[in-house]
Design a protein that fits this description.
about 160 residues; alpha+beta; six-stranded mixed beta sheet; about 20% helix
Length: about 160
C-alpha cells in the first residue's frame, strides 16, 4: 500500500475516504432535530474537496480534533479517532460510495444531504473486511488511492 503523511498530499482537488474508529456508542445530531446512534467500530466517510486548498486542506481539517462542528462527519472526527484517509486526485465521492457499496450504511443520509444519488456517505467498516478489500474497491475505477496516515497533531484552525 502506498502510504504517506498528510504533508505530501496534493493540494489539488479530489475525493477521499476517511477511516474513523469510534470506541464508545455515539449519538450523532442530524438535520431537523433528528439524531442517530452509532455503535463502537470502524467507519468510512466518503467526501470531496473541490474548494480552496483541495484535498490537503480538507483532510487536514478532518484530521484535527479541535474545530467547529460544520458537517455531520465533524461529530465523528472530534469524538472518535481518525486513523487516516485514502485520497484520490480528481476523484468523485459518489463513485467511491458506489465502489464501497458492499459495506453497510449505518445512517441514511449522513453527509449526503445535498446528494440525490447516495443513500449515505458514511459506511460501516466491519472487522471481517480487510483494508486490502477497501483499497481494491477504491482502485476499481482506475485511480490509485494513496493512504495518508495521521501524524503529528496539526495546529488548531476552525
Amino acid at each position: 500500500m502506498t502510504s504517506a503523511s498528510l504533508s505530501v498530499c496534493p493540494a489539488g482537488p479530489g475525493a477521499y475516504v476517511v477511516a474513523i474508529a469510534i470506541a464508545a456508542p455515539l449519538t450523532v445530531r442530524l438535520g431537523g432535530g433528528l439524531s442517530a446512534r452509532l455503535r463502537p467500530g470502524r467507519y468510512l466517510y466518503c467526501g470531496s474537496a473541490y474548494g480552496p486548498g483541495g484535498l490537503q486542506a480538507r483532510l487536514a481539517r478532518h484530521f484535527r480534533k479541535d474545530k467547529s462542528i460544520r458537517w455531520h462527519v465533524d461529530q465523528l472526527t472530534t469524538a472518535g479517532e481518525v486513523k487516516g484517509a485514502w485520497a484520490i486526485a480528481l476523484g468523485n465521492e459518489c463513485a467511491l460510495v458506489d465502489r464501497l457499496g458492499f459495506l453497510p450504511v449505518p445512517i441514511e443520509g449522513f453527509g449526503a444531504t445535498d446528494c440525490a444519488h447516495c443513500r449515505s456517505h458514511l459506511l460501516r467498516w466491519p472487522s471481517r473486511v480487510p483494508a486490502r478489500a477497501i483499497r481494491a474497491a477504491l482502485a476499481a475505477g482506475g485511480e490509485v488511492p494513496v493512504w495518508l496516515r495521521v501524524s503529528a497533531t496539526p495546529r488548531s484552525r476552525a
